[in-house]
Amino acid sequence: MRTISFHTIGCRLNQSETAVIKNSFFDKGFKEVFPDKPADIAIINTCTVTARGDADTRRLISRILRTNPKTRIALIGCQAQVQRELLKELPNVHWIVGNEIKLDIVDIIKKVYRKKGPQVLVPPIKKDDFTINYSGIDKSHIRANLKIQDGCDFFCSYCEIPYARGRSRSRKFNDIMLEAARLIDAGYKEIVLTGINVGKYSCQNKHINEVVKKLIELQELKRLRISSIEPTTIDENLIHLMAKKKKLCRYLHIPLQSGSDRILKSMRRRYTSREFFQFISMAHKKVPDICIGTDVMVGFPGEREEDFQSSYNFLQQAPVSYFHVFSYSLRHKAKSRLLSNPVDQKDIIRRSKLLRELSTQKRRIYHQTLMDKTVDVLFEQKKEGVWSGLTDNYVRVYAKSRKNLANIIMPVQLKKVTDKGASGIVAR
Ligand code: SF4
User: Fold this and answer.
1) Residue 26 has pLDDT above 90, yes or no
2) Is the CB of 17 within 6 Å of ligand 1?
3) DSSP secondary structure letter of residue 208
4) Of 26, 136, 164, 295, which residue is 20 to 30 A from 10 by alpha carbon distance?
5) In 3D, which of 309, 178, 198 has the Cα closest to residue 253?
6) How far is the CA of 106 from the centre of ligand 1 (A)?
């Protein structure tokens, strides 16, 4: 029996797809080994959203080959889709498989195991709605990802995803419901809806709100979370639903990217900073204790000091609880490669640092507002005698208990803000 290890670089959608791929290998003559163990085959689900994602592939291959220099590597997914020529040069690469057929990797490996040289299989990505044949059950995680959508039609100027993932398309509604039932049967209490642009879900006359409404009707499901969602693709009805239905997590992650309208325009984002501010203020007002997270990019070509200052002021004043800071990364197919006025690396580092500090402050302030409240925590794991889990509004909570709390939702009274989240006392 051949041994196989699975590795994921990048986003939650990649994670969910790796889970599906793992399940497709069961009963097909392969034995899964942990990622740090020697394997006959290693599958790397790649990412190309930033230069760092690209570099991670090379690093990961070196690490895998240190444990077994003979491992055959399969590079699948986004980087395989857009950088196949470059990937051919990497050591031990036997398969390069694009996004359209990466879920069929088990059949591909079985068919062409013995051929010499990398097999490059990168067909164009179809635009049709889709179904997924295998489940995304992944026993190494307490919360389940459920892919409902793929691709994007927005073509923001810095982004290569529409080329790597193709145009927006949606998973068939019935297939989503089938998968949700399978996940619930497997014992999952929280489902996270994932995709590239989930707010653009559109299939059989159903949109994101219908998907959410139908899923929260499922009795055994305790929580439904929407992962990152584009501004302009969500409406007030979804926010009303969040306010009304306990099952729908009070959580939004909406990428802002810049607080400067000049830069937003150059990025080809579809909103002004004022519109964004108004939307999240409305959500903040309507949904008590909602956690609103965002992403901000630093160093987009032409970003002047005053543009950065606009982003800083925006994030300081807006009701956001935390944000991720990314440095601009030149992508070969993205329109922004044609822009002049690159930002000095020193400025990028300084600006990023200032924003990261602000995010830490904002997260602490948000957590502070929750102290002494009793909140439901879905516990995940125990480390050094302390259990940790998440509230629906995305607070990482630490609490001691002698009981096995894995996959259990328990009320916890929050007592202290910590560097990593909040600590509290499990209610008896
Ligand atoms: S919305 Fe913009 S940033 Fe997001 S995947 Fe689509 S093109 Fe890329």
Assistant:
1) no
2) no
3) H
4) 26
5) 198
6) 30
